């Protein structure tokens, strides 16, 4: 009977030992913390408006027409026969040139400022923290892990204890 009780006690003690062999939490001493920084490019568009001079083609035609008619009438008053025809044509051409210069002041067109938008893509490099490389010491063993936060002076660790086979 004592042998049965001893066997039962050893089995119960073994079961309790297995239950206590589960994981537990403790704290390790942090030796160093190094931020993990990476360079990231966020390209941006940079635009500006420039004003460039352009010549506006806004020449009037009325002066040429009226000058041509007036010159043709005046040329028709000169000479006779074929000479009258030539004088009418020459008067019309000369009148059109004079009428154009009077209307447009001898200029090819007015100068204006036109807005031109120029855009380009520029690099925008920024630093981004990807976490922290944490080196810690627990019972004489050094380990390193990357965490999303800086743990400070102590790091909470999960310790697993299991029997050797």
UniProtKB/TrEMBL annotation:
This is Glycine zipper 2TM domain-containing protein. Residues 62-101 form the Glycine zipper 2TM domain. Transmembrane segments: none annotated. It comes from the Bacteria. Its main location: membrane. InterPro entries: Bact_OM_lipoprot/Surf_antigen, Gly_zipper_2TM_dom. PANTHER family: OUTER MEMBRANE LIPOPROTEIN, PTHR35603. It is found in: Membrane. Residues 1-21 form the signal peptide. Keywords: Membrane, Signal.
